[in-house]
Each structure stands twice: as structure tokens, then as C-alpha cells.
Amino acid sequence: MWKLFHASSIVLVLAFCAQSSKAQSEDSESEDREAESSAATEMGANLPEQIVDRLFEMSVDDPSTAIRTNALRACANIPNEGTRLNDAVDRSLNASDLKVRLNAIQMLELVELKPQRKVDAAIEYLELRFQNPDRRIPFNHPTISPAVEVLKRHSEVANATLSDKLRESSPSTLLHLQLAGLLKFNVAENADRLHQHSKSDNQEVRGEVVALWSKHLANAAAKRSQPEKQPQPELTEKLNGINPKFLKYAETIIRRYDKDESRSLHEQEWQSMLMNPASADLNHDGHVTIEEYALHIYNRSKK
Fold this sequence. Notes:
The chain has 303 residues and is mainly α. 65% of the residues lie in helices and 2% in strands.
């Protein structure tokens, strides 16, 4: 009886060890699978350096337009490659293929090129697009609007550049005048240049000059007809304690949407803004001034 019990015990111990060994093996295999899965995920997020290098090469050197544009977009999603992305976009802005240039222009807000470089690239692209009168397209066309938006985002630099270009007549003068009409071009400061172009043999050029003068006079008349805004002493007092950067940012936003150049926004002008600024109108006069908007964004930043 004892021998039988002893033998059974041995069998049970051996079975337990075998089961334990099998479980450890399964756990080990599971850990291996998890490790492999983790490695695969890591590989997906961070491609090997040779592939990253190849993508950047193809974004600037591949003879296929489609491949160059797709490679550059892929490069924009690679982390910690800001410097190389800047260089790739910068080189693509000089491409002979206009589709490659357009793709680079659409990515300008992702890179840290100087505003002057962005403006020059946008204007040069538009000049190439408008070289043939039969190929002129509306400024809101998908192949044109990204470049126009670059100029609007950097309007001060764009206006200074257009002013320089309008010193002399060129095959692109009509385009430069049309762009000036889209931006807040200072007609008074460029009076001599516009007067010169008003004598052009090109009827379209003369027409654009008159359109600029007309817009300028209409804005001036609108300003004269507006009631003088009453000062807000309590607003001035509140602004004394905030960082000047809020005023600078507020002025940038107001200028972007201020169509009548009143240095404030009325309801029709702020319709296209992502966030309705009506709550910034402290004196409830229907206009949001730079000061009011600065205080508004300052108060929001503290929440």
C-alpha cells in the first residue's frame, strides 16, 4: 500500500513539474510575442535612419512629381527632423515643377523659414502661374489660394515686397497690383509708383490702379462717417498690467480681418474667425478694438 502511494506521489510531482514547465514556456513565448509587437510598433513610429535619409533624398531629387510631393509630406511626420524638413521645403520652393512648388508652399507653416523667404517664394510661384494670360486663374482657386494665404499671413513683408516690385514696370505688374488690392497696401505711401502705372499702355494695369485708388478713398470716407469712439479709461487701466505681447498679437489678428481698415472688427468682419470675439466688446458698441481683444485673450489665458 505504501509503495503504491509513494509511486502515485512521484507521478503527481512529475506531472506538476511538466505543467509548470509548460506554463513557463507559454509565458516566455507570450513575453517574446509582446516584445516583438512592441518592437514592431517602435519600428513603425521611428523608421530606420537609412529609410529616413532616403525619404529626404526622394523629397528633393526624385524625377517623379508625385513621389517628390508624397515623400515631402511623409518627411513632415518624422519627429525631430525640423532642420532637414526646413531644408527640403526650401529646396522644393525652387523646383521647376509648379506642383512641387505648390506642395512646398502648402507646408510653409510647418517650417521655420524667414517670412521674407516665404513671401518671395509665394510671389515667384504666382508670377510663374500668371505668365501666360490664357492661364490666369481666380485667386481663390486651389492652385493659387495657398500662395495668397502666405502673403496675407505675412502682409507687412508682402506689402513691402510689392512696393519694391512696383518701382518699375514688368510683365508681372498687373499681378503685383492685383495682389496689392487683396492686401492692405498703403496707397498713400506708394502714390508715386501708382501714378506712374496709371499712365501704362496696358488697360488692365490702369484699371487696377484706379481700383486701388477707389478702395482707398472709400475706406477714408467710411472712417470719416464713423462716430468717434469714446475712450474707455477702465480699459486703459486694465491694460497697464498685462504683457505687451497680448497687444501685439491682438493687433495682428485685428489687422488680418479688418476689411475697412478701422483698426477694429464689426460683426460682418469677424464671421470668418474660428472663435466669435463678440464677448470682447466691453462697451457693447458693436466693434471689437485692438485693446478690447488684447484684454479678452489675456483673460482667457488665465483660465
